Amino acid sequence: MSDSLKLRLFDELESLVLIDPHSHINPLEPASKTLADIMGYHYYTELAHSAGYPREKIEDPGISPKEKVARLVPEMVHIRNTYQYHWLMTILKEFFGHTDDDLTTDNWEKTYDEATKRMSAPNWEESVLKQSKLEGVFLTNDFDDPLKGFDTKRYIPCLRTDDLVFHLTKKSTRDRLAKATKTTVKDAASLQRAIGDLFDHFLAHNAKACAISLTPDFAPKKISPSEIELTVQKVFSNDSDVELEAGVKTQLSNFVFWTLAEHCNLHKLPFDLMIGVNRGVYEAGVHQGRDLYNRQTSLIQYKELFNAFPKVTFPISVLDHTANPELVSYAWIFPNVVINGHWWYSNLPGYIEADCRSRLQGVPWTKNIGYYSDMYKLEFALPKFRMYRKVLAKVLAEDFVIDRGWSETKALHLGKEILRGNVERIFGV
User: Fold this and answer.
1) Does one domain contain both 69 and 193?
2) Residue 287, Cβ neighbours under 10 Å: how many?
3) H or E element: which one contains 181?
4) Could you say which of 119, 150, 181 is where a domain stops?
5) What is the mean pLDDT of residues 10-38?
């Protein structure tokens, strides 16, 4: 009964049309053009490099897309055990008609050429969305993105704020802010107004969230305009990059971050917090393959924020799988803390299953956003969401139907809310 039950639940979940609540899709070029766009995804380049392939050969600027794939294919033999490779094979089989069990030096060119042919079709983007059962995809937009040239109902803007919070000491960031807002920042008050202008721009283009990736040591704290006034004046009166003492720079970051939270509160916009990434740990790594986590992160660092903004919804992602029990406990207690997906290094079925069980066992179902793709190209939605749907079907079958005696209909309703309903409810789409 168990296997057939899981399959029935999975089939029903697989038929559900979804809205992806977090991605890195470029809405002007959402789908891949060659197989290099798929195999150039950092999961494959970093795993190939980890297995011994030189970074310089992967990132050789002079190679063509086909040559890049030719170089990576022989390295795939080392990562056939990984689930990331399973994503790749699912894409090749579902979208490009690849029939062999693996991608090898003997068969890759045929698949490459067939993929290029299919990707060149004018309806490729529509075809991928339909086959992937996606009708909406959240973006990750730079704060100065003009948000033009795409359908914001399909590709939903999200104000990404890392640069504002952590890089205002860079002249380039300040220049971008001035250009985007047409504001000359001179003091704390004008900086707050400029940030408000960014929210106005994004909200006018159907933005449904604000988001930021945060380091393990970041601890939000309210900084008043008077406390930061001289620092803002110093930074914005300078025509070059500015060096600040660590404590002063942290104050500036906190002032900007708190201002963002205030605007989320004003505009009833969820504030996605992706917590725990250390940048540039492996300095010689491939592009996007240098960042890692450590276990010093704690949500206790965010207690002042959660208490200060009870009306702001904070969808939280944690990079470290071992941080999941703490996330469960905070979502258990704080009404404004929502569990959000399975991020990056936690995005493996072994971790997802354990995390999914504890989340469904301990947190109100209305506060659980099951999954997001984090993808850079549309083709990855299908294998990634399928991975999660399989895990979710297993947990629903074993923990709810078999263990608790729920009907399949009741369990399936819960699964649909975790996959789709909560995204609509929490983000207002």
Assistant:
1) no
2) 12
3) helix 171-181
4) 119
5) 98
Which two structure tokens, joined as six digits, stand for 375? 């993808």
What six digits make up the tokens of 356? Answer: 């999914």
The yes-or-no verdict on residue 2 having pLDDT over 90 is no
Is residue 142 situated within a structural domain?
yes
Is 25 inside any structural domain? Answer: no
- Tokens (6 digits) for 350: 């072994």
Give the tens place of pLDDT for each residue, 275-324. 999 999 999 999 999 989 888 889 999 999 999 999 999 999 999 899 99
Residue 397 — pLDDT band, cuts 50, 70, 90? very high
Cα–Cα distance, 275 to 415 (Å, whole number): 26
- The model's pTM is 0.96
First-to-last C-alpha distance (Å) of the chain: 37
Determine whether 178 is exposed, middle or buried from the number of CB atoms within 10 Å of its CB (0-12, 13-18, 19+): middle
Which residues make beta-bridge pairs with 137? 20, 155
Render pLDDT for 66-111 as a digit per residue (tens, 0 to 9). 999 999 999 999 999 999 999 999 999 999 999 999 999 999 999 9
Contacts of 217 (CB under 8 A, 6+ apart): 296
- The CATH number of whichever domain residue 342 belongs to comes to 3.20.20.140
- Can you read off the two tokens belonging to residue 313? 């919804």
Tokens in use for 318? 């944690």
Q: Taking residues 404-418, what's their average pLDDT? A: 98
Please state, in angstroms and rounded to a whole number, the distance separating the CA atoms of residues 9 and 49.
38
Contact 88, 56 (CB under 8 A): no
Q: For residue 136, list its beta bridge partners.
A: 19
